[in-house]
Amino acid sequence: MRILHALPNLSGGGAERQLGYLAEAQARAGHEVSVAYLVPGPEGVSERFARVDLHALPASGNYDPRLLARLVSLVRRLRPDVVHTWILQMDVLAGAAARLTGTPWVCREPVSGGAYGGAWKHRLRERLLRGADAIVANSRAGERHWAERGTRASLATIPNALDLEAIEKAAPRRPEVLRDGPFALAASRLENQQKNVSGLLAGLRLALEAQAVEAVVCGEGPYRAQAEAFVAGAGLSGRIHLPGFARDLWSYMKAAGVFVSVSYLEGQPNTVMEAMACGCPLVVSDIPVHREFLDEESALFVDPDDAAAIARAVTRCLAEPEAARARAEEARRRAANWSVAEMARRYERVYDACLARRRR
Question: CATH topology for 2-161+339-359?
């Protein structure tokens, strides 16, 4: 099968990581896999794409009007059996190219419906997706979003995958910025509307006031300056650390006393899943997406707007390590089902079904 994936950049975010896993698995299975993209990322193209045919699309910016024509030309030249789009920009542009060329189109839905506003680009995406062959969400909430809109596209839920072998090989390691002692860990895009970084920091501040511990919040994003100002203003610059993007996150997870994620909205959060596979105790926001794969036997749930509740849960994990480890072990057992190979098999079934419907 010839498969063309399209996404805006290869910068190493959650969607890019999932595409890297999937594209490599598909190539190993004998499919002809291509990836079209705009931006290679800060350090070039990831080694995850070593087995696929990469196509960089020249563009003067995200709204370059020539991009659609270039994607149409690429689809006509490669003649893929399926175009698979990732992230809003390519859902619109590569999705339109698939429709213009009559190519089966599969779109990945990475979030639940509450993440979309009334912006023109969201409305355009929704209109175009009425003509998709299949929409694959990574959460049941994402699938419900499209079922409620009466789309004609085939709907499916395929969870994100984990590189379980690589995670298993990662050795526990503390971030170098820390002193001795237990620490709390968080990792996400530093963005407030969905990721609730301000609530996370407020909860960590109260937890650190109650215990002699430290916290590490990994990630980059538009809220970084405000996060740094909050930490400095609270007098916690030596105890809440903001090291940016972390390459050794799995090692940190295996050394941390608790991993904290208090987002308002998620699709299926990679970092929470990775913390589960690493056996790190969890404190998560009580939102439907987290409830899809976690419960009280595997995590502590908190109101994301209640800083005191976040602090109490963090403190409880660190003060009751045996109970925390028992929950973490149950979470790790569940994470064992999220292999890359299984994700690739399920996507292949979606592609086959789309092609069968086209033939009929």
Answer: Rossmann fold (3.40.50)
> Measured at the alpha carbon of residue 326, what is the angle toward residues 322 and 330, in degrees to the nearest 5?
165
User: What residue type is 14 in one-letter code?
Assistant: G
CA 301/CA 233 separation, integer angstroms: 28
Report the chain (360 residues): mean pLDDT per 10 consecutive residues.
94 83 95 93 65 91 89 98 96 96 96 70 89 94 87 92 94 92 94 94 95 93 95 94 92 97 90 96 96 96 98 96 97 94 96 93
SS3 category, 280: coil
For 43-62, give one letter per residue: b (16+ CB within 10 A) or e: eebbebbeebeebebebeee
Q: Residue 258 has what DSSP assignment?
A: E
Pair of tokens at residue 94: 């590569």
Which residues, at least 6 apart from 277, have a Cβ–Cβ distance to it below 8 Å? 162, 164, 167, 332, 335, 336, 338
Of 114, 84, 85, 89, residue with least CA distance to 267: 114
Are both 2-161+339-359 and 165-335 of the same fold? yes
Please state, in angstroms and rounded to a whole number, the distance separating the CA atoms of residues 149 and 137. 14
Structure tokens at 241: 């650390």
User: What's residue 40's pLDDT?
Assistant: 80
Residue extents of the structural domains in the chain:
2-161+339-359, 165-335
Order the strands of the 82-85 sheet from edge to edge.
Answer: 53-56, 32-37, 2-6, 82-85, 105-109, 134-137, 154-157
pLDDT of residue 42: 54
Question: Which of 241-245's residues contact partners 24+ apart within 8 Å by CB, and which partners?
Answer: 241/175, 241/177, 241/178, 241/214, 241/215, 241/216, 241/217, 242/190, 242/217, 243/175, 243/177, 243/216, 243/218, 244/218, 244/219, 244/220, 245/12, 245/218, 245/219, 245/220
Whole-number Å distance between alpha carbons of 92 and 57: 15
Start-to-end CA span in the chain (Å): 18
| CATH among 3.40.50.2000, 3.40.50.2300, 1.10.630.10, 3.90.1300.10 for 165-335 | 3.40.50.2000
Q: By three-state DSSP, how is residue 221 classified?
A: coil
